[in-house]
Please model this.
Amino acid sequence: MHTVEEPFCAAAAAIEILQQKWVLHIVRILLDGPRGFNELGRLTGGCNPATLAQRLEHLESLGIVRKTVHSYMPPRTTYELTAAGVALQDVVAAIEAWGKRYLRPAGGAGEVVCTQGEAPAPGRTG
Amino acid sequence: MHTVEEPFCAAAAAIEILQQKWVLHIVRILLDGPRGFNELGRLTGGCNPATLAQRLEHLESLGIVRKTVHSYMPPRTTYELTAAGVALQDVVAAIEAWGKRYLRPAGGAGEVVCTQGEAPAPGRTG
DNA sequence: CCATGCGCTTGACATTTTATAGCGGTTTGC
DNA sequence: GCAAACCGCTATAAAATGTCAAGCGCATGG
Model:
């Protein structure tokens, strides 16, 4: 679609994959162990089957997720991370660390970053 | 929309913010220094003004980005990261490291993860 | 037996992102 | 001086994407 100026930016390329809706959630859940399709959908926080199937297929084609069919009937499948997928733990860990440090439980109107140590300014919105 | 089972998952909350389209790109660019609106749009790889404005406003309300209007006329505004925003460098760095390690320049049919170095398994990535 | 759950697809719908044009004005080029 | 380009940013419609609800074929639990 674009990306014509830079030869290859690893960060930008990785971001393109990870910023897709639900991807980071999927990885995060899978980091905890193999999961089934519906189980994964629930654990991600409610990813619908259509999107989940597409994300999973994409991640599988990328070699980040591995799909294992244990039996067609009754249907029993598990998704797990490959080595490349497990390596994303560093990313998820960094995100979680950031969240723990700068995000507060959110009262309801969206998350708010706590600018502790920052914002010497008098204004609000911190 | 959801999140009813867990009291507060920092990782999930942070992911909700970061997985929005262009957010990670914006942060990545801003990590390199303050930028103007249109400049930012170009550097992100072509984020359109409508989305960019919305993302910027959201990030600002979150306290991740700080907007500074130097002059209304001629219009001169700069966006830069707050301390919370700069802290995302760890996340971007982790993403970039992962990308460098597991992503290859992509021939054209989408990026492909290279499972080299890892995967002590006998078969191929499957 | 009937309801439920499994993995996953389909189709209609809602939300999000995109492209394009434009505002008011200053700067640049000729 | 005038036309064009650019600044930050908004409006609009169209396209892309994500969501919901239902369901297939079958095994299990009440």
Remarks:
- Strands of chain A lie at 65-71, 76-81, 103-104, 112-113.
- The CA atoms of residues 41 and 47 of chain A lie 5 Å apart.
- The longest helix of chain A spans residues 49-62.
